[in-house]
Amino acid sequence: MNWRPFIDHADVLWAGLFLTLKLMVFGIIGSSIVGVTVGALGASSHYFLRQLCATYVEVMRNVPLVVKLFFLYFILGLDAFPAALLGLVIHQSAFIADVTSAGFRSIPHEQSEAAFATGLGGMQTFLYVLFPQLLRVTIPPFTNQAIELLKNSALVSLIGLQDLTFVAQNIQIETYRYKESFIVVTTLYVALAFAIVGVMSALQRRLRAR
Fold it and tell me: What is the Cα–Cα distance from 181 to 193, expressed in whole angstroms?
């Protein structure tokens, strides 16, 4: 194996890795905010909100990510990075909303009733009573969704965004070192996935300790 081409293209490779990392971080934050919000509204007692959230989840889960990317980039005319980030957020938020709704259903209704009985309002009940319990039960499936978002980020190369997959393909074309390229890219993606698992595991241990 010849690793010299990757040393020569290290600056391009790191730029692609940084872009993938940026998509991953902002994508996880954005999809978490949207997903938890939709999931919380979907678990409310209001029929219209439940149906609206259920429709959002079903549509976004069943439309492929690549279709969303092409629609945002080619039809709406967004720049590559905003289109990629928005596509990842709305795609993964539907799955996170489903996880959030399941988490709320696992919390006994007596918890909310007890909170209301002590004089807490709706938002206070959510923040101080329900949300901490929700975190404990949803961290494992949420970790899976974060890793899914990382893997799905490889599709942004289809709209010309020079992420890790895009630059690795360019290095392949220029150097003809296909095997080495796949090894490098796979190693970097696995390292990012393990980083997600490590952060989420640390958060779960901290919540259990508290």
Answer: 18
Query: Helix crossing, 10-42 with 178-209: angle to 10°?
Result: 40
CB atoms within 10 A of CB 37: 15
Domains present along the chain, CATH in parentheses? 4-209 (1.10.3720.10)
- The pLDDT tens digits for 3-34 are 676 677 778 889 999 999 999 999 999 999 99
Cβ-contact 192, 20 below 8 angstroms: yes
Joined together, the tokens standing for residue 67 give 């279709």
pTM higher than 0.70, yes or no?
yes
139, HSE (Cβ side, Cα atoms, 13 Å): 18
Is residue 119 left, alpha or beta, with left meaning phi > 0 and alpha meaning psi from -120 to 50? left
Is the pLDDT reported for residue 206 higher than 90? no
pLDDT at position 153 is 94
